[in-house]
Amino acid sequence: MFKALAAQWQENQKQKRAIAAEKWEQEKRWREEDREEQRQKRAEDARQQQEQERERAAEQARREETTTMLYRMHLDVLNAAATVSYITLTCHEDTWTFLARRAFGTWSPEWLTSVVQDQPGQAGPVAKQATFKKNPNLSPGRITKQDSGMQTIEVSGDNLVTILEALWETAYGQSGYLALMDTDPNKSACAPLYRRFKAWLEGLEPGTVSKPGHTLVLDERLDTQPA
Length: 227
Prior knowledge:
With about 230 residues, the chain is α+β, with helices and mostly antiparallel strands. Helices cover about 60% and strands about 10% of the residues.
């Protein structure tokens, strides 16, 4: 009887060891499966990250290519503006105020207030009241105030370049963050005005010795063909 009990105990221990070994093998397979699943997940995450990086790089390249193309077109516009001796710009005083302050800085009231002149030649800055980023050197007589708030300004090619630079920088040259942080309520006017100047420059015809300047009217109601 003792031998039978001992044999039964040994058999039970053998079965326990077999069950433990099988359990260990099963847990080992599970761990291997978990490790394989983690490896596949890491590989997929790495693949997706690489794909995202490639997409970001491609998008950045497209943006840089677009920016380069736009700037080359902008340089063509500046080159055309620089060869103009002067233009006679006719626009409302508010439009000129917007252009002048953005391009040149703070102007004196005499330049900005719509007052019909008592006599010709009453225009130009008052030095102590004007703070220029760049002095446009508009001597007396080059700004003529008209009725209904309209003004005629004789703008040199050099000043035209400065105006175009200021308009382009706000409309197209800023990064998304800078454009978002620009609180100027009139910034939406920069792109239309820039395109208007650009179209005008593209349509220019050569002048003559007796008439070296050209005329641009910033008013959709009026004829704006180059003169």
